[in-house]
Amino acid sequence: MNSFLPVTIFGCGAWGGTIAHYLDQMGHSVTAWSKFPEEIDRLNSTRKHPHISGLQFSESIQFTTDIKEALSDAQIIIIAIPSQTVRKLISQIKSLSSSEIIIVNLSKGIENSSLMTMSQVIVDEGDFDPQNIVSLYGPSHAEEVALGMPTTLVSAGPSDGNTAFIQQVFSSENLRIYTNSDILGVELGGSVKNVIAIATGIIDGIGYGDNTKAALITRGITEITRLGEKMGADPDTFSGLSGVGDLIVTCLSKHSRNRYVGEEIGKGQTLEKILDGMEMVAEGVKTTESVYQLQKKHTISMPISTAVYNVLYRGKNAQQEVKELMTRDLTIEKRY
Asked: Which of 105, 109, 159, 292 is 20 to 30 A from 136, comparing alpha carbons?
């Protein structure tokens, strides 16, 4: 990529901050926005990220709480905020930006109220052209990207031209981007995997071993694929980076907030206490609600996701839920 672009990032959390630093190092003109004045003040004064050790921001990155200022020159908008707040942000920026601007979505989740993926929320609320929306997903913990560790992502959207454009903007010797036209499948894979990651954490917290975890991850991707196919996604997508790739990293990594939530649940902590002690968002908690509603809406079986819902929202015992998973009616190994 030879030309340098004005880019605005909405969200200064771990992922948003890391991408701001990365694109700045690539030579792009970066503005990063947060709605929290204290967060912007801290970033401006320290030039360090509070949650990513060693992440030092250059003076060329502009941090602001002013949405109009943030959008003044942007050619690319990047959304990196909690999924349940995306609609509100889009409602604020839709009158301040061109309907033709390219929006890159990094937020992973399914909106509770509408059961929409993030690209669907952006189109529904902002009346943006779906062709100009790209979701950039994949196995990518911010902590490792910030250190320059080799990472691969997938640029997904209905426009081959725009997904290829974002592929070029983001690719480097440390970050390799693939393209995929199945944005629905990519977003479902990158969102529902957080529910399975909570289940994996529960397994760790209880003290079960690798056999249990391997079975859960394998059957977890089956559930994700089952839902995706029912909703019209390409089943091959779930064998890719935003399917099994993202599932593996989120279920197994020490950096995974969703796995952490599950582990604490497995140890006997309450969800309320766990969330009160966390500074960053574990998207899988809210996504569990959405997935439970989606599997009912589409009349499909997602026993692991349902078990997570029962533990988080119905107060069911985690070990009892595992027992019930293991003693369901026996069947053949298939998606349906």
From this structure: 292
pLDDT per residue rounded down to tens, the chain (336 residues): 447 999 999 999 999 999 999 999 999 999 999 999 999 999 999 999 999 999 999 999 999 999 999 999 999 999 999 999 999 999 999 999 888 899 999 999 999 999 999 999 999 999 899 999 999 999 999 999 999 999 999 999 999 999 999 999 999 999 999 999 999 999 999 999 999 999 999 999 999 999 999 999 999 999 999 999 999 999 999 999 999 999 999 999 999 999 999 999 999 999 999 999 998 999 999 999 999 999 999 999 999 999 999 999 999 999 999 999 999 999 999 765
Report how far residue 23's alpha carbon sits from residue 29's, in angstroms, rounded to the nearest whole number: 8
Cβ-Cβ contacts under 8 Å for 238 (sequence gap 6 or more): 185, 189, 221, 224, 225, 228, 244
Question: What is the topology classification, in CATH, of domain 184-326?
Answer: N-(1-d-carboxylethyl)-l-norvaline Dehydrogenase; domain 2 (1.10.1040)
What fold does the segment set 6-181 form as a domain? Rossmann fold (3.40.50)
The DSSP secondary structure of 66-87, one letter per residue, reads -HHHHHSS-SEEEE-S-GGGHH
Ranges in the chain annotated CATH 1.10.1040.10: 184-326
**Residue of 48, 68, 94, 193 with catalytic role:** 193
Q: Is 48 a catalytic residue?
A: no
Residue (of 97, 81, 184, 83) closest to 135 by Cα position: 184
> Taking the complete model, does pTM exceed 0.85, yes or no?
yes
